[in-house]
Design goal:
This protein is an alpha/beta fold. It is built from 20 helices and seven strands.
Length: 406
C-alpha cells in the first residue's frame, strides 16, 4: 500500500481540502491497493502567527474523518514561522518518518512542475548573478519575498510574466517552497544512502479552489448567529467540520489581559531585537505603537494591523509577538532551524495509521509524542535541540489554552 504525505494547516478543514483528498486517493490508488494519507499538520499555531481556530486534536480528527490515515504535528516553533521554514519543517518530518517518500500539495498551476524545476536550482544555489539582483531589490526597501520575485523576473526575463502570475497565488508559493525544501533534503538523504523524496502537484481549481480558510475564519468572527453561520458555512465545509465548528470552543480573538506582560516588557526591553523575526526597526515601530495606545482594548492582532507596513507585513509582526511571548531568541532559533523538527506529536490515526506508527517506532529519526505528559519527560534523541523545541511547545500549549477558554 502506497503512503503519500500532505502538509497542511486545516484552519479549518474545508471542501477544497476534501476535494484534494479525493483527487489524491483517485490518482494514486490502484485496484486492491489503496493509498494511505500521512498528514503533517500545523499544531495549535499557524504560519500567520495566529492561534488556530480549532485545537490540533479537533483538526486532526476532521482530517481523519475525510480520509487521512495518520496525522502528525509540526511543532509550534516551526508551524508559527514563515512559508519557507514551515515547508522545510513539514518536508523534514516526512523524511524523518521513515515511512513515506511522496509528498502531494495543491497548486493553482499544477501543470507547471517543469517551470518550478527551473526555478528551484537558482533559489537553492543562489548563483552570484541572482544574489546581486536580490541584493539590489532588497536595497530598494522591498520585503524579502517581493525582492525575490523581482530578482527571479530579472534572472529569467523570458519568464517574467509567468513568474508574476505564478507567485501571486498562495498555493503556488507553497508548492515552490516544498520543491525547494525537497531539493535540499534530498541532498542530505543521498549522503545517507536514502532514496529521494518526490513532489506531486494536485490541481486546486474550480469551485473548491476558490474556497478560502481565511474567508471562513472571518465569517465566524463577524457572524455569531448559529442559523446564519450554518447557512453560510454548509457550502464551504464538510458536515463533520460544520458540526465541530458549531459545538467546539473557537479561538476567534486574542485577549489583552494575557498579553499585558508582553506589551509592558516590550516597551522597555533594549534586547528585543535578539528575538526571532525582530529587527531594530521593527522593535522601534512596536514600541511607538504601544506607547501611542493605538487600540482599546488592545490585542496583538489589532496592534499588528495598525503597525503593518509594506516592509513589515502583519503576519511577520504576529510571528514576532509570538517569538517574544515564547522566548524564541535568534541564537536558539538558528540552532533549531539548522536541525529541523526533533519530535512530532501523534494527533490521530486509524488502523492503517496504527501500522505506520509501528513502522515509525523502528525506522523514524523523530521522537514520537503520544501523550501530553511526554513533553515534560527528559528524552534522548538524535537532535541536540529536542529539549528546547519541547520547551517552546509547552509554552505554546499553555498560551493556546488561555485563548481557547477566554
Amino acid at each position: 500500500m502506497k503512503t503519500l504525505a500532505i502538509i497542511a494547516e486545516y484552519n479549518p478543514f474545508h471542501l477544497g481540502h476534501k476535494k484534494q483528498y479525493e483527487r489524491v486517493l483517485e490518482q494514486f490508488s490502484e485496484p486492491k491497493n489503496p493509498v494511505r494519507i500521512l498528514n503533517i499538520m500545523s499544531g495549535n499555531f499557524v504560519q500567520r502567527g495566529e492561534a488556530a481556530l480549532l485545537d490540533e486534536k479537533s483538526r486532526a480528527e476532521l482530517a481523519l474523518s475525510q480520509g487521512a490515515s495518520l496525522v502528525l504535528s509540526i511543532p509550534s516553533l516551526f508551524s508559527a514561522s514563515g512559508a519557507r521554514d514551515f515547508a522545510t519543517a513539514g518536508v523534514k518530518i516526512v523524511s524523518r518518518s521513515g515511512v513515506c517518500l511522496d509528498i502531494a500539495c495543491g497548486a493553482e498551476n499544477h501543470e507547471d512542475m517543469a517551470f518550478i524545476s527551473d526555478l528551484v536550482p537558482v533559489l537553492d544555489q543562489e548563483p552570484d548573478s541572482y544574489r546581486e539582483l536580490l541584493t539590489e531589490h532588497l536595497a530598494k526597501g522591498l520585503p524579502y519575498m517581493s525582492a525575490r520575485q523581482e530578482a527571479l523576473k530579472d534572472y529569467f526575463p523570458d519568464y517574467a510574466d509567468k513568474i508574476d502570475t505564478f507567485i501571486r497565488k498562495p498555493n503556488n508559493i507553497l508548492a515552490l517552497e516544498y520543491a525547494l525544501a525537497i531539493e535540499k533534503e534530498n541532498r542530505l538523504r543521498r549522503d545517507l544512502g536514502l532514496k529521494d523524496l518526490k513532489l506531486h502537484l494536485i490541481p486546486r481549481t474550480g469551485e473548491e479552489g476558490a474556497i478560502s480558510a481565511g474567508h471562513i475564519r472571518n465569517l465566524l468572527r463577524e457572524e455569531s448567529d448559529t442559523s446564519r453561520r450554518i447557512s453560510a458555512l454548509e457550502e464551504l465545509v464538510p458536515e463533520e467540520t460544520l458540526a465541530t465548528l458549531l459545538s467546539s470552543p473557537l479561538v476567534l480573538s486574542d485577549p489583552f489581559p494575557s498579553l499585558l506582560p508582553l506589551f509592558f516588557n516590550l516597551r522597555s526591553d533594549k534586547d528585543a531585537a535578539q528575538y526571532r523575526d525582530m529587527s531594530d526597526d521593527l522593535a522601534g515601530l512596536i514600541r511607538n505603537g504601544l506607547n501611542s495606545s493605538l487600540m482599546d482594548p488592545l490585542t496583538y492582532s489589532s496592534l499588528a494591523k495598525d503597525l503593518t507596513t509594506p516592509y513589515f507585513p502583519e503576519t511577520r509582526i504576529n510571528r514576532t509577538f509570538l517569538a517574544y511571548l515564547w522566548g524564541i531568541r535568534k541564537d536558539d532559533w538558528a540552532k533549531a532551524q539548522a536541525e529541523g523538527p526533533a519530535f512530532t506529536k501523534v494527533l490521530a490515526y486509524d488502523a492503517n495509521g496504527r501500522y505506520l506508527l509501528r513502522l515509525m517506532r523502528k525506522l523514524s529519526r523523530l521522537t514520537l509524542i503520544n501523550q501530553k505528559q511526554e513533553l515534560f519527560k527528559v528524552q534522548k534523541g538524535p537532535y541536540e535541540t529536542l529539549a528546547y523545541q519541547k520547551q517552546v511547545e509547552i509554552l505554546s500549549e499553555k498560551y493556546y489554552e488561555k485563548l481557547r477558554h477566554f
